[in-house]
Specification:
homodimer, mainly alpha, 47% helix, 5% strand, globular, DNA-binding
DNA sequence: GCAAATCATTACTTTTTGGTCAAGATTAAG
DNA sequence: CTTAATCTTGACCAAAAAGTAATGATTTGC
């Protein structure tokens, strides 16, 4: 279970845009340079993010990319879903081995764990906005642990 | 962020072995058939799991695979780490774009989120044993939600 | 000891993902 | 209107992951 290259770089490009002041924009070469990737690759990523509605662009001289919505209104789970093509809904169609359908039809002991894991990740990401990734590593770290709160196994009290 | 094929099938093969009674074992063709994968693929997976110490094997007629430890002593985080090659520790070396090193040296706003996510997943998996994946889907689902407990963002009380 | 069944290991092929290239379209500036 | 800068798009190439095949080693049963 890992972050794909597309998720990583796509997210990083968006953070660059989140750093901008109102009215500013970044060109593909600028984005590419700031993230250490090729201009062509930045172009592909921004194309995806544009299609998905996270960024807008203007062409021509003085053109560039900028966020389509305030960074505080964009949650990481939405971003990841686009960059990773929402794989949860197709899980059981993807891992069918050499068969047409997964052998575990009907009753499957693995599925609740896979689904549950994805829920946990989704839940964690849905609490974080792009805006909160702007800042120093220590401040983002503090934000993350504060937002995720204290996760422990507790029995509901008095329910 | 998704489960890889190796994680999925490897885990499923182990669950098959967890279903056995003491003294029983399964051959590669048997494992392959029960999971709907090819014998060659099952062979590769079991080789990995054998190297990692999760299973033992005996060769020759009446040979086969069986768990090296009780299913109740094997936690999913250990399994996933082997099947996915513990990618967290090498994250910043993997996503360097066209550069030799990641441009975000020293201070990185993405890293705490990546690390935090992996911690959350690791934490969830470290509470689940192979043994608890044996059973019906509904029972495994109930186990999962009970073990993960109630996750909410709560402020520490009186600390 | 021999044959059959089985695992072990490495090399190879296929598929998927990641990344690049090139031609086209749009815009701003002069 | 022309040019230069920029995004857009689809085709293409490369790298990584997944899966297959083939050969070798070990064990059991006769």
């Amino acid at each position: 279970m890992k972050i794909s290259a597309q998720e990583e770089y796509g997210l990083r490009c968006l953070v660059q845009l989140a750093n901008l002041n109102a009215g500013e924009s970044l060109t593909l070469p600028q984005i590419a340079e700031r993230e250490g990737i090729s201009t062509a690759n930045a172009g592909k990523l921004m194309w995806l993010l544009n299609k998905a509605g996270f960024v807008n662009s203007t062409r021509g001289t003085k053109g560039g990319y900028f966020l389509a919505r305030p960074a505080g209104d964009i949650y990481l789970n939405e971003i990841i879903k686009v960059l990773d093509e929402d794989v949860l809904s197709s899980h059981c169609d993807s891992y069918t081995g050499v068969m047409d359908k997964c052998v575990h039809t009907g009753d499957c002991g693995i599925r609740p764990v896979i689904v549950g894991l994805h829920e946990i990740v989704e839940n964690a990401l849905s609490r974080i906005t792009l805006a909160s990734l702007v800042g120093s590593e220590s401040s983002v770290d503090a934000m993350f642990h504060k937002i995720q709160g204290i996760h422990r196994t507790i029995e509901p009290q008095g329910i």
